[in-house]
Amino acid sequence: MSAGTSPTPLARELDLRDGQRVWFENMPENVQDEIGEYALDLIFVGHPDEGADALHVFVRDIATLEARLPTFRRTMAPDGHVWVSWPTQASGGASELDEPAVRAAGLAAGFVETKKCAVDEIWSGLKFVIPKGDR
Asked: Where do the domains of the chain lie, and which CATH numbers do they carry?
């Protein structure tokens, strides 16, 4: 069961599938463990420039997010996705981000938002993809 609020396994909630090339940044260990429990055959790349089908970045400030998104947009698979997670205000986690700020940064980088997820008790996430007309 997901550490967030959904009964769906977290790996499935995050749209991870066997054979995907993935890159995660600052992912908490408990989230990694939960994804690992789903026993997917994921291919981990060392850097976003190596190309990935699924990326997931955990951030606390807008500058880091705005610096990362253009690289993701340029290097990810055209039909891939990016999850951006930030600490929720209710969790008490130090962050200058909230859902509207994350959404605005994703849209400004040329993505469209397709999904929202409670990753765990601390982190929320928004999923972004490249618009179909730009693939």
From this structure: 10-134 (3.40.50.150)
